Amino acid sequence: MSSHQEKINAIRQTFSPKIKFGDLKKIVTNHLEIESDAFYELTEALTSGQNPSFKDDYESKWACYYLPVEDDGECICTAVSIFLSYKKICYVTFDNISRYGGAAVDKGADEVPEDYALIFDEISRFVPFVNEYGDALLQKLYPYRWRMGRVRRKFVCDTSRLMSEEAGERLVSAYEKHLEKNLSVSEISLNDYLKTAEFCYRAAFPEDISRLLQQMRVTEVSAERLHKQWADGRHGGMLFLKDPDSKKEYMDWLLSREWEGAHPFEIVYSGNVHGISLDPPNKEESQYRLSVIDPFYNDDFLKMVAALIEKEVPFRTFSLQNIVEYCRGESYMNVNRPSMRDEILSYRHSEEEEEKYFSHIEWDKIQLLEPCSPSQDEA
Predict the structure, then answer these.
(1) Residue 127: pLDDT above 80?
(2) Taking the model in full, what pTM does it have?
(3) Parallel, antiparallel, or unpaired: how do β-strands 288-292 and 90-94 relate?
(4) Choosing a second label site near 188 at 20 to 30 A (CA), which of 28, 88, 298, 354?
């Protein structure tokens, strides 16, 4: 073992944090709003020794400092970010613990709370060790349950549900050959549109359609009924057209834009983002356009692509290769990275998770602040 590593192990064993992790959670989970010039000066004093990780005309950000805490008898670190605005307002965030906690500090005469004074003292006490040993030290003290990274979906998802490489290549090749045919259509009727949507529904949801037939106690179901079953429902008057076979009426309605604000072309509804959309041809494009936003429907989307190719429907789609990669499990999903849209693996470094996922995760580089040079300190 090198002397450098021995020193790191010694710090890990002998550094005695003055804050317990359980107590820290109680302090920072509740959002603190305070008017305190002294608190602002405290953050200025701390940040004067490091260059900001981000700076513009409105604010400077330091992401991130590391606060040593005791957790189950061991010394670990949690990340702390500081934002200083040009309005003399600062924010202190503890994203590992609470996205909505921390402190917002405005100008005023309030005193610095004792808990936060201790937090800043502990950060300052630990800064020299981080400056000297950097990543090597934090690799030992910064828990994986708080780190971010990425992992290929195939190491997380049920592999029996993934598309094979051969199937993906066949679909992409079939689509490229389909484009070479230069199929086009200038005008369509409502029934033409619904029939095209029906191709998509029957390809993606055959079992659901069978159950629907049983519930309705019928042997057939119309394209319009399927549209009502899966589409957004806000059709912008599309389903109220008088003559569903009239191309003129449908194209006049389409060009009128009276449907704006509705979702008539979202043929598969998603409650989070757009699901699957089938945009009709118009005066600018002489083909349908099939697209998907919600990755939950990516497998269904590929079935629809295959069906439209088979039916020789004039259509285009975008990012087909990326969606195929997703369904093959070759695309990445986030690890511990907050997101409203993307899939996330919430990794807590349990024994089971370590065995299943750890060797496959590509971890982000630990964020380190750059110490100011002596000339900067003097300035």
Answers:
(1) yes
(2) 0.84
(3) unpaired
(4) 298
